[in-house]
Specification:
- The structure holds two protein chains of two kinds.
- By secondary structure, chain A is α/β, with parallel strands linked by helices.
- Chain A has a single domain (about 5-255), classed as TIM Barrel (Alpha-Beta Barrel), CATH 3.20.20.70.
- Chain A has ten helices and twelve strands.
- In chain A, strands 1-4-5-6-7-10-11-12 form an eight-stranded parallel barrel, surrounded by six helices.
- Chain A is globular, with a radius of gyration of 17 Å.
- The two termini of chain A are about 20 Å apart.
- The relative contact order of chain A is 0.15.
- In chain B, the strands form two sheets. In chain B, strands 2-1-3-4-13-12-11-8-9 form a nine-stranded mixed beta sheet. A four-stranded mixed beta sheet of chain B has the order 6-5-7-10, with no helix packed on it.
- Chain B has helices at about 10-20, 30-35, 50-60, 60-70, 80-85, 185-195, and strands at about 1-5, 25-30, 40-45, 75-80, 90, 95, 105, 115-125, 135-145, 145-150, 155-160, 165-170, 175-180.
- Chain B is an alpha/beta fold.
- Chain B has one domain (about 1-195): Rossmann fold (3-Layer(aba) Sandwich), CATH 3.40.50.
- Classes of the chains: A alpha/beta, B alpha/beta.
Chain lengths: ~270, ~200
């Protein structure tokens, strides 16, 4: 059967992985290629890489770091940040990524989703969303609003309407990133994750807030997600103790989550 | 030397990185004259069957590929769409394909989450030199909305379940192809690539 995925997420600044709390106060962790190599060796299922300052600095994505990471990663590798056109996407794919993550840019110019899917296939385009619980009101019937630009700008878009639109336009996967939970280690926002999983027919990825095995298990079962983005738990210096993929997987299997088995003789 | 076909809709860089990691000599090829002497060919792929075939046609690679694989019988590995285009027809955009293997490419049934994205189990149903180093059951990374339905069930080498059971690895004479991304399937995928690189094209 198709298993659930554990995706390590890198917020990259200047070629180094950093760790934020609620999209702020990034602290330095390690060079991206070193952490990627270590997690690949530890059998992470997938890696996603966000060049988090590219958009704000109005520059192109750091292709050199993408290339260096790709050389160490023989599991799927998604890249986002500062992508404004199909040509930008092509550059990132040529550098060794197989999926492109679009977020704020897609809210401003939704057609970028369709153009990317037409050029490279739906499976290539991951729509990442920053969502915040704001309470149901006219225009936001789900009570969750989409934000952009590092959670700074409200868009007035309803989260569920936006993900349905994204799927229609050609997104192959949807990331639900809870602004309220990001970096808090208090667990994924299961309510919106489940609502998105019910609203779309493409795979859904839970993100923001995983602090322990119970949180990941909940995201992948009650939350209805096909994959879980984790970062702090793997490598945050703010955590007293980080867990390896092997440890995580053996605990998650106890929770009944189907996963790619950890290979002991490779 | 392993020649990896390069075209816009492909993910050829990932395949090159994987082969380089294994210490294998490889290069990207994009012109017909570059493959007339190929010793070993890989056709990677992502995206749609029609776009892949159009792209190969525009680069005038189709005839050269057919000659080298069908006539000269050099070892050939197709990956993902590189598997699907080998069959006669794909339901994706009602697309006639190469027809090197008898059978059709079908869409997963409604009600399943598509694309299938993630690690799924492959169960090998017979032995083959390219998969001899792999466990009888193992997980590999899939991204697909369509699957192969070979007319000759003997062409199936591995099977996987997603709603239905489908042929996730096929092999016929000098051709081997995987629906999963061997270059993105961790150590098992790398092992398959290494064994393909050492294969003489015979079963």
């Amino acid at each position: 059967m198709l298993t659930k995925r554990l995706i390590a997420c890198f917020d990259v600044i200047g070629g180094r992985v950093t760790k934020a709390q609620q999209f702020q106060d990034n602290i330095d962790v390690a060079p991206a290629e070193d952490l990627a190599a270590r997690l690949y060796d530890d059998q992470i299922d997938e890696i996603v890489f966000y060049d988090i300052t590219a958009s704000a600095q109005k520059r192109k994505i750091d292709l050199e770091t993408v290339r260096r990471v790709a050389r160490h990663v023989f599991v799927p590798f998604t890249v986002g940040g500062g992508i404004r056109s199909v040509d930008d996407m092509f550059e990132v794919l040529k550098a060794g990524a197989e999926k492109i993550s679009v977020d704020s840019m897609a809210v401003r110019t939704p057609e970028i989703i369709r153009e990317g899917a037409d050029a490279f296939g739906r499976q290539c385009i991951v729509l990442s969303t920053q969502v915040k619980q704001v309470g149901a009101r006219p225009g936001i019937p789900s009570g969750y609003e989409v934000f952009i630009d590092g959670a700074r700008e409200a868009t007035g878009l309803d989260a569920l309407e936006w993900v349905r639109r994204g799927e229609e336009l050609g997104a192959g996967e949807i990331v639900v990133n809870s602004i309220d939970r990001d970096g808090t280690a208090s667990g994924y926002d299961l309510e919106i994750t489940r609502a998105v999983a019910d609203a779309v027919n493409v795979p859904v990825i839970a993100s923001g807030g995983a602090g322990g095995v119970d949180h990941i298990a909940a995201g992948l079962t009650d939350g209805g997600a096909q994959a879980a983005i984790i970062s702090s738990i793997l490598y945050s210096p703010r955590f007293d103790r980080n867990l390896g993929v092997r440890e995580l997987k053996s605990a998650l299997v106890e929770h009944g989550v189907p996963l790619r088995p950890y290979l002991t003789s490779t | 030397m392993i020649d990896v076909i390069d075209y816009r809709a492909g993910n050829s860089p990932s395949v090159i990185y994987a082969l380089e990691r294994l210490g294998l000599e490889c290069r990207l090829v994009a012109k017909p004259e570059e493959i007339t002497e190929s010793e070993r060919l890989v056709l990677p792929g992502v995206g749609a069957a029609a776009a892949t075939l159009d792209s190969l046609r525009e680069s005038e690679l189709l005839d050269a590929l057919a000659q080298r694989v069908q006539r000269d019988r050099v070892p050939f590995l197709g990956i993902c769409i590189g598997l699907q285009v080998l069959f006669e027809h794909s339901e994706e955009g009602d697309t006639p394909c190469l027809g090197w293997l008898p059978g059709r490419i079908r869409r997963f049934a409604d009600g399943l989450r598509v694309p299938q994205i993630g690690w799924n189990e492959v169960r090998f149903t017979r032995s083959h030199p390219v998969t001899a180093g792999l466990p009888d059951r193992g997980h590999y990374y899939f991204v697909n909305s369509f699957y192969a339905d070979p007319a000759d069930s003997g062409d199936a080498l591995g099977r996987t379940e997603y709603g239905i059971e489908f042929a996730s690895v096929v092999a016929h004479d000098n051709i081997v192809a995987t629906q999963f991304h061997a270059e993105k399937s961790g150590s098992l995928g790398l092992r398959l690539l290494a064994d393909f690189a050492a294969w003489d094209g015979r079963c």
